[in-house]
Amino acid sequence: xxxxxxxxxxxxxxxxxxxxxxSCKTMDRxxxxxxDLDLSIKAYNMEFESKAIDMSARFVHPKYRTEYMAKSPExxxxxxxxEASILDIKLSxxxxxxxxxxxxxxxxxxxxxxIRYQTAILPSTKLKxxxxxxxxxxxxxxxxxxxxxxxxxK
Length: 154
Known about the structure:
Strand content: 25-35%
Radius of gyration: 22 Å
Distance between the termini: 80 Å
Strand order of the largest sheet: 2-1-3-4-5
Helix content: 40-55%
Structural class: alpha+beta
């Protein structure tokens, strides 16, 4: 029986490690759900902050999309966002907090994201700090926001 050469053994082990790593990552739905949430939050806020209203609307819950589209032009016209920072993300199952030891996809279907905005709101030219709570819910397998645009205009 011929001996396998060292490069074949190394290649086999490397492929096995990659397969195990990818398998473990895809098997853990908790991390997939949280990763999807993080990506949705970043994409929505980047589009919202750059005033790409039509693009950001795809992340708005269908029940609130019409109202969002009606109010967004005023937001885009009056508000300039200079900086935004996510301060906190609270995950929950409806209104119950998710315990830190819980790692099941079914346990997370709602998130409250606290964001600090540095803005100027016309007619004022002064820089203003706003703390906004964004409510995110899992709707048909996708994270969507229930926006509160009035919080920007108070």
